[in-house]
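Pasting as-is:
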Amino acid sequence: MKVFLTFHGISVVAKNSLLISALALTLTGCNSFLDITPDGQAKRDEMLKTKSGIEDALYGTYAQMRQQSLYGCELSIRGVEVLAQNMTCPGNDDIEMLQNYEYDKTDMRSWAESIWTAMYNNISNANSVLNSDLVRGAREFPYTTYKGEALALRAYMHFDLVRLFTPQYTLNPTADGIPYQTEFSLVTPQFESEQKNYEHILADLLEAERLLKVQPKHQYDVTAFMNDSQSHLNLYAVWGTLARVYLTMGNKEKAAAYADSVITKSPYKLKEKTEVINDVAGILSQKETLFGVYYGDFYSTTSELLQKRTFYQSLDPRSDFMDYYERESLPLDYRTSAYFTQIEAGGQYFYRLSKFTDIYELNNNSGSRPAELILGINLIRIPEMYYILAECLLDSDPAKAKAYYNEVRAHRGLSALDESTDLTQELIDLEFFKEYFGEGQQFFRYKRLNQPISSHDAQSIYPASDKIYVIPIPNSEYANRY
């Protein structure tokens, strides 16, 4: 049975957001719906009094991350990739407004609000778990794990809101931030500084790390919920998130330490160059994914937007993308043919970003997919940790930085930089671009480094500025306050 708590109306993080937060609980059997009325509230509270109910609530929180307005589309393959000028769609007004950074337009304000609202609604779901009696003061396994995952979820989602809606921290740490929502209640959280936002994000992640560290001791006492840990914000994913957060804050020492922990202590390793093809094609990479969201229907989104070429809807890669992959004529970068294919339409051939297209669905052969593969969206992969270390050590230990950089190149079919060639930030940027094209991280990287962005047609440059890099907070957030 799938049970959903549904709510009426539209809202943001303020009072109304908490009234309409969608707590999706994944069970088995039939479908039913509970409104947040006093009766519905009581039923929700009753469900969270059991271990299975808490697990269902967490399942639902992860499930809500795959909404189209969140990581199911806009924060992965479409919206933020258009902002990075990686993808385009000639003739599509919404896409053109995004790639022109026309945030003041009505449709763009609606786009931003859909992200803001969906994310805060789902943060409320995580808070519902955290505020439950069994989890709030958890000291015993498995409740410590539930609390750790919920805290990590809350921090992860707030972090992406901060990256979208506030200035780059290293340029202006005292800038206005966003509300940090910690309660499932009618209390409207206040806006706070960006510095305070990051304090809360780190506090949640560090507490999650402390709580999740004990889980390996209970490897023979796990519940079914803890299987397929790649689809959970597990300890290694928390480390990866901490590396990402510290790097965004400019703390290279701690970013490097957490990235190193992932590489040296986690079971995840770089795949071989021959394994690059189809490795993230609608599935979580078995070797490289620290965290991803299960999404059984991701193919329907990628097929329409990326694989097909439907006028006014499908997305084309930026015009010069191949120049990045073919900058070195030899040896072959295995990502080139693994990530892109050509299709024929109207007598012309077009490149498609086929990196995420489920080959089993594409060939109408889903029954042949190996059972161990997890359908979904990759959100943190281990190559990022190597790039973080390369960047953090670039000045302090250039030889070690170069070694991390060369390690990823070797696993993508490329030769190491020769001894006479110095590693530079530009070279790290190039490899990051090639590795993460289409995965929703490039825009945030440009923003963190305060870099200009080359337009999708390579004809103009957008200088770095808050007009590009800071999405305006929806007006309704202020309108709903009193």
